[in-house]
Amino acid sequence: QVTLKESGGGLAQAGDSMTLSCVVSGGSFTNHAMAWFRQAPGKEREPVAAIAWSPNSGLYAGAVQGRFTISRDNAKNVVSLQMNDLKTEDTAVYYCAVGRPTFIGDYLQSRWYHDWGQGIQVTVSA
Description:
Elements: E1 3-7, E2 10-13, E3 18-25, E4 33-39, E5 46-51, E6 58-60, E7 68-73, E8 78-83, E9 92-99, E10 113-116, E11 120-125
Parallel strand pairs: 2-11
Antiparallel strand pairs: 1-3, 3-8, 4-5, 4-9, 5-6, 7-8, 9-10, 9-11
């Protein structure tokens, strides 16, 4: 059984930094992409960032481009999200996911991700 466990969330102030991590276990994830999505209260889930198995280059949603950095450790099956210059609009439940998107344009689409974590709350105050 595949399990994804997020950690590192909590409270922050605008301008702060925070790092989320997600450990994936229970399977082989070779050639799988990993991603972060988020869902704010009253809003639909939206993509944040994704990273391929190789090369480890990240893809980002426009709202976080330049502020967030996604990385992964394939040996440990860990994906991380470094979030800098946090804004109140970053407040959301953040989910990590693993999947097999085919094309570059698929990496930030949730339908390509088949396993998800339970989510972790990130709250940013002004």
